[in-house]
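If you are new to this repository, start here. Below is one unmodified record pulled from the training split, so you can see the exact layout before writing a loader.
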Amino acid sequence: MSQKRLIHIVDDEDAIRRSASFMLKTSGFEVETWTSGAAFLKEVRHASPGCILLDVRMPEMDGLEVQQALNERGVTMPVIVLTGHGDISIAVQVMKAGAIDFIEKPFEKAVLMGAIEAAFERMDRSESSAVRAGEAEVVVAGLTPREREVLEGLADGLPNKTIAYDLGISPRTVEVHRANIMAKLQARSLSDALRIAFAAGLGAKA
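And here is the target side for that same chain:
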């Protein structure tokens, strides 16, 4: 690869910017750091294309607002969201808005590298959304009706206990269904499962 891949780190925490920047540079990436979402948005039109590591909790504009602004401006650079406050609702919001993945701090290098690899694969592969939707629908069609109901609950941002209550089953049964869903979708993480669910048209009520 003649040209180094570029990572934009958008995080108000100096320690995170420095540690992530060092990790990525030693892994062969070029890195640009930004102290806030507002600062990044101000220059994004002139920024070189790359992958965006975007923190959720920032002053002025939080990561979700920055992601929305990027979408409104038609910026197609892949986004990986970093959060120290990860929960289902944030995961659903960032994935619906098109994020590649969400990663909880403190993150492991292997997890971050996997997400970055997926981000650059998306940049390299201009895969049509119609093809992705078709593939997702085929995979989701292989779920049982109950498994699909559980997946719909996850796509709507509901915790296991709420899904269990709504379906009249135990939280333990929801966990079993969730494990079966992950296996059938070949999803390595919740974000993988959500991406497939959204591509198949689930969770569209929100």
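Two things worth knowing about this chain: The chain has ten helices and five strands. The first helix runs from residue 14 to 26.
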